[in-house]
Amino acid sequence: MKNLEQLTSDVCExxxxxGKFLRKERETFSMSRVELKGQNNFxxxxxxxxxxxxVTALRKLLPEAGFIAEEGTAASSNERYRWVxxxxxxxxxxxxxxxxxxxxxxxxDSDEVILGVVHEAVAGECFYAWKGSKAFLNGREIHxxxxxxxxxxxxATGFPYCNxxxxxxxxxxxxxxxxxxxxxxxxxxxxxxxxxxxxGRFEAFYEYALQPWDVAAGSLIVxxxxxxVSDFSGGNTYIFGQELVSANANIYDEFMEIVKxxxx
Length: 264
Hints:
Shape: globular
Largest sheet: 7 strands, mixed
CATH class of the largest domain: Alpha Beta
CATH architecture of the largest domain: 2-Layer Sandwich
Helix content: 25-40%
Strand order of the largest sheet: 3-4-5-6-7-8-9
Radius of gyration: 17 Å
Order of helices and strands: HEEHEEHEEEEEEHEHEHEEH
Number of helices: 7
Number of strands: 14
CATH topology of the largest domain: Fructose-1,6-Bisphosphatase, Chain A, domain 1
């Protein structure tokens, strides 16, 4: 496998070109070309075409790697190296002409994420990191915020759109953070939420009913930016376990306890 830093640079270029494609398609996009995959779970020809372009390019960059891709245009044929791809994270935002929406690409070596790129297409911002590196935004090093308490933090979250089994516990957590922090924001793109934790715009992010392609890239970027990531129990199943907590290192323990207590 080629050098991780160079591979990350190549993936950033791919993410930029995909973001350009998304913005161009948005100019003439029609709701008539939206399909429903499940309750409130949308997909369009833009998602599918973007993923095909990404998969084709990634196969050239690393022919030995398999895929975990949201729209199913490619499957994993490799138990070690796997690309985890979301060609359009924030599809609902996209189809309504609303920012943000992002391209998210990660590379896993067995169960470890070793490369992560999140390109927020509307702002043209590319967040990235690789194993052992710092975290970067458009070439500039980034770091999680220094906020010391939840009370002085801005919290990001995502609303469930089909899995409402934990809705009452989730609403309890929202009620707490609304009253005991600087506020709560819901952007509609988990990959972007994680990137914003990494660069200090948010102090923390949590959500359940997530998929690997939503969080793989962003979770690495947060950690390389000095933050912490876990599942709701404090464990490390956040890639495939469908729930994730991320925060700066100063507030992580406090934030984690609040999430745990409200979701018990």
